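Here is a typical sample entry:
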Amino acid sequence: MNVDRFLAHYDCLDAALTLRGFKPTTRWWRATIERFYRSGKRRLVVRKGRRVFASTQVAPRLAVCEMLFGEHQHVTGSPPLTFAFLSVKRDEAAKRLLGVKAILDAIGEPSSPSGMNLELKNYPAVFSVVTANHKTNVGDTIAFAWLDEVCSWSDDDLGANPAELVVGRLTPAL
């Protein structure tokens, strides 16, 4: 991936959204995003406080930017690429789809909701809600995954936080 080009697209998306009434990405988040993409690493772990716009602002913008400009290869004839949001509660993860839909509407990118998915009309991509459960089957190709509030995940069957198992199930699909 050309990091400079991706970050320029992110900045253009951010500016376009700001003109349409969205809050701009904070300097801290922008610097964190840039540091991550320039690092060449595949996972970013952020320890942060509450109400810092991570899930409502950063997650949807990064997911849309990855979908539009992330240079993810789709194999013709295969299912669409999945841009997944995981949380301990499906309804909590589904809130990320509201942010994605608002962004897509603001930039004129047609999409349609389908259950816990948001399907794009012009791209082989779907934004999807996945429950953070170690039994969840992730069979499609995941191009992007946002794992929300991992420290509070719990599983009654395990009696423990299933994050390691969930990530283990998710990783082969990435």
